[in-house]
């Protein structure tokens, strides 16, 4: 089972093999936020750790693919344990001591949903993921999720999914963004039993949005 390390209520993947398995086998992408050891002064490509969204963390744990864990802080460790490391130790000895200390891993439970929006976001994420799509954060395009039909390295995002009600003015502006970026703007609705998807199409002549029901 893969360990998701919880730091400040956020889930991280630090192991390269674990990250590769999550991406290629389970379609969990996350966001690489670290620097590459060989080229640390560039920003074109990022490396580990991988930051997972709260939806990705919850889905992985519920499907028994991962578990959420944390390491005890050094300030909370027993004095006898911290005393093992002293300034005269060589680097190999320090690494051994750190491995011994960090073996006291703690499994932590998933947090509860904060509000209804977080609950709906998770239901939408889970529904689209179960249908074989890849999902990433859609904040850059004014949505909750970007939806891909294949790996984003090879495919263009086809949908911008919103999980909240939007007023007419915001709907028009976001429809324009989706049209310019060659995507479809989708509003996801939870009817209690399943997720209903509405695709909004901007009519340039009337400046109105026409919506149609859509099934993924």
From TrEMBL:
Gene Ontology terms for molecular function: nucleic acid binding; tRNA-intron lyase activity
Gene3D superfamilies: 3.40.1350.10
UniProt keyword annotations, A-Z: Endonuclease, Hydrolase, Lyase, Nuclease, tRNA processing
Top EC category: lyase
Lineage: superkingdom: Eukaryota
E.C. number(s) listed in UniProt: 4.6.1.16
Catalysed reaction equations from the record: pretRNA = a 3'-half-tRNA molecule with a 5'-OH end + a 5'-half-tRNA molecule with a 2',3'-cyclic phosphate end + an intron with a 2',3'-cyclic phosphate and a 5'-hydroxyl terminus
Entry keyword annotation includes Ribosomal protein: no
Residue span, tRNA intron endonuclease catalytic domain: 120-195
GO biological process assignments: tRNA-type intron splice site recognition and cleavage
GO cellular component: nucleus
Keyword GTP-binding: no
Residue ranges of domain TSEN34 N-terminal in the record: 2-70
PANTHER family: TRNA-SPLICING ENDONUCLEASE SUBUNIT SEN34, TRNA-SPLICING ENDONUCLEASE SUBUNIT SEN34-RELATED
Protein name: tRNA-intron lyase
Naturally occurring in which organism (per UniProt): Schizaphis graminum (Green bug aphid)
